[in-house]
Amino acid sequence: MVRCAMALDDEQVAVETLLRLKRDAPDDPEALYIATHYFSELGMRASQQLAAKAPNSFQARKLQAEALESQGKNDEAAAIYLKILADDPKTPGIHYRLGQIELDAAGAAGPTDPARREFEQEIAVDPLNASAHFILGELARRSNDFDGAVKEFSQAAKLDVGFSEAYLALGMSLAGTGKFADAVAPLERYVKMEPGDPAGHYQLAMAYSRTGDKAGAARELALQTQAATSRQATDNAEGHSVQH
After folding, report:
1. What is the number of structural domains in the chain?
2. Burial of 210 from C-beta contacts in 10 A (0-12 / 13-18 / 19+)
């Protein structure tokens, strides 16, 4: 059905069938291969339609810039982003992309002020951008500004309740200010969302320990060990599979 629908350019039927296929056979290798192949083709068709129908739109130019970024051509991408902003300074998402380019240019130990300014400008344009708040929180945490980090991570979690990393970062930042009791709730939220991450269990164990919950701390340390062992086994299995 998928192949026929794609051959007939009936994208609605193709998408509906692909979704049914993923639902009915979520772990089948052939189903996953077909989904990967045809969703990719649908994405390519959509990008071609965008370029043909609205080549001068900021969406088409943004897509072009994102493609350049994926190729490591950040300077060329930045030039397009800046042109988009020159045409309309309130275009959402553009300062965010420029901020990412600045972070990439700065590397692990470089100056982050240019990137921070871009993310702050993004929030001025789009206050609901949870990812921009999150990165500002990370930049604050890097500079030991834990109060600033708490503010940004809290906002990120509020805007996107499914943003699991924001809860972990918020808990760690609260712990960094000595507010271990306040750190418990976001860390508990994180381990429920990401039970397989050893880091979450460790951070929650430390928060429990500092608030006098010895039983909770012991439980989370045991879960940390279990999660770490499971992750190592998965990594070993994947490594063995790659070798063969």
Report:
1. 1
2. middle
